[in-house]
TrEMBL record:
Species: Rhodofomes roseus
UniProt cross-references to InterPro entries, sorted A to Z: F-box-like_dom_sf (IPR036047), F-box_dom (IPR001810), LRR_dom_sf (IPR032675)
Domain F-box: 2-38
Identification of the protein by name: F-box domain-containing protein
Gene3D superfamilies referenced in this protein's UniProt entry, alphabetically: 1.20.1280.50, Ribonuclease Inhibitor
Short name of any one Pfam family annotated for the protein: F-box-like
Amino acid sequence: MIASLPPELTDHILDYLHKDSRSLGACALTCRAWLATARYHRFRDLSVKSHIMLTALRDLVAPSPALGLVVRRLRIHIWTSTLLCSKFPSLPALTTLVLCGCGFRLGDLAGIGVKLPALQELSMSLCGVDLDALAEFLSSISGLKTFSLAQPHLILPLYDGVPVVGRLDSLRTLRLDFGDSPPGKRGTKSKRSMSVILTTRDLSNRSSIPLVRAVWNMWR
């Protein structure tokens, strides 16, 4: 009878395969004891580049809740496409979400915080969104600690009011980077070119953070 290897040794061996998805998949099918480590390396940091991939991830995680607990970081690069809450998988342990080139409107991501309850860091770059939709999105994430917004294409609301994000007591860091000329009200473009990077720390004592109001005022 062949003696089994110590778990620490097998984990150390599998660590060398952390970038080899095919080999990790084979290991997961070879030995049940290797499954947890193989899953960790395969799914902890994911990149999605199409709606088909995002839907496939949702369908993969739905019948296997343990798999959703492995994912810690999700990057979504879907150019000129609209994100919908219904397309998102339920990832209760996800802490970092990166959106690049994505778009969404008011109501598209309502309730996203239920699917991503542990989200702490949100990074958005080159995203085309309505300003009120951004406020709704941020308000649904109760534990957000870091928010980064880079070169966005924001559309101001049709109405005169300013959408304001609700309580974000956990927010510690806010980064705003406007490298391009943003659009103004629908059908018009602003003539001001903004190039601003703002970092705000120690915001936990603020009862309400008018983040979207600040973005609005920078572009007026």
